[in-house]
Amino acid sequence: MTHTVRTERVTFDSAGENLVGTLYRPDIQGRGPAVVVTGSWTTVKEQMAAVYARRMAEAGLTALAFDFAGFGESGGEPRQLESPERKIRDIHSAVTFLARHESVDPGRIGALGICAGSGYTAVNAADDPRVRSLALVAPWLHDAALVRDIYGGDEGVRRRTDAGLAAQKRYESGEAAQFVPAVSTTDPEAAMFGPFDYYLDDRRGAVPAWDNRFAVMSWPQWLAFDPHPAAARITAPTVIVHSQEAAIPHGAEKFSDALGGPKNLVWTSGTQFDFYDQEAKVAEAAGIVARHFTQTLA
């Protein structure tokens, strides 16, 4: 059954910052299950998070997509800071918002992370018993070894880390935050340098709400972030949907192997960006995730 979905703009507090979200509500009466949905790094709620939140609501789950502090419509400085610690805190606050909402059964809350949102969502789930079920789609789950492989070895990691620490020092001394493009095909200093069409195509991810900037001071936090130690503490039933053609599948395998609770690693096909907005791929992945939540949040 596909439910009719209505959306509403919502706001909630996270450590003193006002966060803005969109709540996707199915046409059901009373309190029911709900999920927090998060997307890839640098993104806003109107991108892949919105796509999956709507699919969850069509399946009968209230779903919340929101802008992290420093991104989109939400408050918070510095802007465009990819801070795992801050984002994990915001996910925790989003769960709190759902747990208090009139349409949500607080004992039936799940969390869905897409790409980099998977790592943040997983770390919160490891220490937040309110998250009763977890789903990760095309997860970006790096560790120190994968970071070196992706960012040019020890030298590439050191160069970005040093640039980030210098930018942070200048910011803390009162200078303006320093930015590079989040995505570029021409600027090698961009956070993502290459033909990443999803982000540069206004028919896909280049939505007006997305700011194509990356705070340089993000590098030390992003490069040092490692969600893998959290896996053993996750006891909520977990499904991971990924592809060998997508980003760092080895990270998903390693994470799945370490999970402390029931788990299901589902291999499909497709590139990383296919999972974000291509109809056939989204329908397949969202269908797997919705069935997982329907069963585990029953």
Largest sheet: 8 strands, mixed
Q: Please provide the count of β strands.
A: 12
Average per-residue pLDDT, rounded, comes to 98
**What do we call the CATH homologous superfamily?**
Alpha/Beta hydrolase fold, catalytic domain
Distance from N terminus to C terminus (CA atoms, Å) equals 16 Å
Shape label: globular
**CATH class term:** Alpha Beta
Strand order across the biggest sheet?
A: 1-2-4-3-5-6-11-12
Put simply, the count of helices is 10
Give the DSSP E fraction (strand runs of 2 or more residues).
15-25%
The low-confidence parts are: none
Keywords:
single chain; globular; two-stranded antiparallel sheet; 37% helix; Rossmann fold; 298 residues; alpha/beta; 12 strands
Give a written overview of the molecule:
The chain has 298 residues and is an alpha/beta fold. Helix 1 (48-58) packs across helix 10 and helix 2 crosses helix 3 (116-127). The protein is built from ten helices and twelve strands. 49% of the residues are buried. The model has no long low-confidence stretch (mean pLDDT 98). The chain has an eight-stranded mixed β-sheet, with helices on both faces. A two-stranded antiparallel ribbon has the order 7-10. Strands 8-9 form a two-stranded parallel ribbon. It has a single domain (5-143, 226-296), classed as 3-Layer(aba) Sandwich (Rossmann fold). Helix 8 (249-258) links the parallel strand 11 (238-243) and strand 12 (263-268). The longest helix is centred in the middle third of the chain and has 20 residues, at 153-172.
